[in-house]
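[job 0412] stage=complex_fold ligand=WT7 status=START
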Amino acid sequence: MSKESLANLLKEERRFTPPAELAAAANVTAEAYDRAAEDRLGFWAAQARRLSWDTEPTETLDWSNPPFAKWFKDGKLNVAYNCVDRHVEAGHGDRVAIHFEGEPGDTRTLTYAELQREVAKAAHALTELGVRAGDRVAVYMPMIPETLITMLACARLGAPHSLVFGGFSADALATRIQDADARVVVTADGGYRRGKPSALKPAVDEALTKPGTENVRKVLVVRRTGQDIGWTEGRDIWWHDLVDRQPEQHDYEVFDAEHPLFILYTSGTTGKPKGILHTSGGYLTQVSYTHHAVFDLKPETDVYWCTADVGWVTGHSYIVYGPMSNGATQVLYEGTPDTPHQGRWWEIVEKYKVTLLYTAPTAIRTCMKWGDEIPARYDLSSLRLLGSVGEPINPEAWVWYREHIGGGRTPVVDTWWQTETGSIMISPLPGVTEAKPGSAQVPLPGISATVVDDEGREVPNGSGGYLVLTEPWPSMLRTVWGDDQRYKDTYWSRFEGRYFAGDGAKKDEDGDIWLLGRVDDVMLVSGHNISTTEVESALVSHPKVAEAAVVGATDPQTTQAICAFVILRGDAAEDASLADELRAHVAKTLGPIAKPKRILAVAELPKTRSGKIMRRLLRDVAENRTLGDVTTLTDSSVMDLIQQKLAAAPASSDD
Ligand code: WT7
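[job 0412] stage=complex_fold status=DONE, emitting structure tokens
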């Protein structure tokens, strides 16, 4: 489909009704909204029965000491049993749990019965290393089955894991080991990225030289790449030496619903990372329910694939705990989407006949930039549902995703949530909701969210403000690790009694919610609040633009001036009239007040490894400041190129 006909699709403000076949067989129907509205806690109590409890909970929510919630507090369960063993006991031991695809093309298939044995062995191994219930285990791993096995083994032992994304530096790893006071680190020699081995173990060695990491007694190392690594006798131990010789059966212990399951540090585009604490029963209830409801998972027939790294919350909730508690079959891919070629993802979809795909807008826009002809080479007809998460998806990318990946058939679910919320909170239901490209639409059954103004008053339809969650939910964070005060201050003090998400949002005339990016990303231009997301979306709706990042830079006349950084589509030329053309386009789409003062075509944008644009750095260059912390960038040379380019470009002079 040409860019022009896509634009026409968008202009009609098309609505996409659920495919009749999917709607007729959907796991969750419209009735769920009514049931949850009538009795929210009764609704969640019913969802908790999706799990196997060793002691059934009798109390749903204890909210006597807000904002510290206890869900299902007298219930007892084992999370790993729920994700693995019970499926084998139910006769599904031969079902594939994981189709692993390594970046070099090696593969490994694990059924639920095999996974059960691997998790049992890993649990014995961690026990041998001294791990006891309550001890924190840091995990610094590539995207390989052992990572999931380690997480499940930790859950089985009641030892909270703390995953640190493999792209983070030794410093970032050390900070997280210190903060959580981890006792054991599980890592690998390296993993494969962009066609070559990428080391992990040296960063662990370096991190463990830093003060505050002395309590790490043992480092368990998976051999993945076979590269040379340093070795500390007495501390380091190979996975294959320790795990392989363990018994294949393990008796699980039972834990309280509020037993800590994991700590995960927020990706932190600003400030010191916060250790977000999630616990067991409520978390597992909501990830299980939302995976069932939003992805309409049919465990017997679906092949699910979430492309996120397991080091992010998306990987925790929608690779490990949600899908596995539901007995899903899934694909796990180690590498990057363009190794060895730009069709790799679509080749994987074709190979495993993936039916449900969950990815991020930044990946979708990258694929748009590479060109429609790449996915067109593969048979993607197995897909029946597509999901998006991580940032607002502009309508242009939404429609492209549905047309070029979903063959114009599949629903697209735009799912809003955060590390802190643990599970999806706002999303269409694929068999119910008439979808609107660009909007996450409505809170899921059992979830209460709204948009308020500065004083905390709910805004009417057609207005914007701040997104808040008005009732506690089962998979909510319980605190910031070691810092209850920061938990209260950050999330519960901006608006009395309500959770402040930090996102700007608006409600349209139908009351559907549109996310507008982080509140820090709202610009003030001549007395108007303008969201970076809206200007970016307007820019990307121009045929020449593939990606855009917008920031507000301090300006003597207008408080802030809008600066736009754009990546052009493959065939678009950067000529003298480009900036004017784009400015005119934004003026027409959003209004003259939203016209960027400066527009700069760049080759790449600074992104965190989870794909979020680091606007803070772009603001630094736009305001001619020394760059702030660049350690979480995927590629720090990107910023040098942007700075050089900006220095050479004149600012626009007309308004
Ligand atoms: C922030 C949370 C949730 C897993 C991955 C990110 C943004 C996330 C959407 C969406 C608009 C979204 C928000 C949110 N975000 N999903 N569907 N539409 N914005 O987890 O790193 O904790 O980031 O990501 O700004 O607050 P995270």
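Residues 138 and 162 are 5 Å apart (CA to CA).
[job 0412] exit 0
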